[in-house]
Structure to design on (148 residues):
């Protein structure tokens, strides 16, 4: 009669050993793919609201400390990136500027909008307690470059 071979302690370790090292290559591959995806999509997310601005000879860029109000061709009013209507605009501007020392608003309006509508919006903004209202226009040389 032949007795079965009893595995020794060393043989048990070799058969049931766990891999104690982590393979980081797949992790690095996934992270690089995610990095590329975020690098490509980040500029697209900052595009803002599409407005066809009127042109001017001087460059008018908003300061960092002001609130930007955008009105597109469909008469949609955006306070920052939030959409609102003209009836709620005064309260929203007042609450957005509450506690700020300088009450500055920059208006970006599509050039196809009627002048009377823009004046109505400017009137509502000034009723909200705004001290300075700036109108943003696109420089003429930039407009000429875009046409090429």
């Amino acid at each position: 009669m032949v007795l079965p071979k009893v595995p020794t302690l060393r043989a048990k370790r070799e058969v049931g050993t766990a891999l104690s090292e982590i393979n980081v290559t797949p992790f690095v591959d996934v992270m690089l793919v995610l990095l590329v995806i975020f690098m490509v999509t980040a500029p697209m997310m900052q595009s803002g609201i599409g407005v066809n601005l009127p042109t001017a000879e001087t460059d008018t860029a908003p300061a960092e400390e002001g609130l930007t109000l955008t009105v597109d061709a469909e008469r949609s009013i955006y306070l920052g990136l939030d959409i609102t209507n003209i009836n709620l605009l005064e309260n929203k501007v007042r609450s957005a500027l509450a506690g700020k020392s300088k009450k500055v608003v920059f208006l970006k309006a599509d050039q196809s909008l009627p002048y009377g509508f823009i004046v109505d919006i400017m009137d509502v903004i000034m009723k909200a307690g705004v001290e300075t209202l700036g109108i943003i226009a696109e420089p003429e040389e930039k407009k000429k470059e875009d046409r090429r």
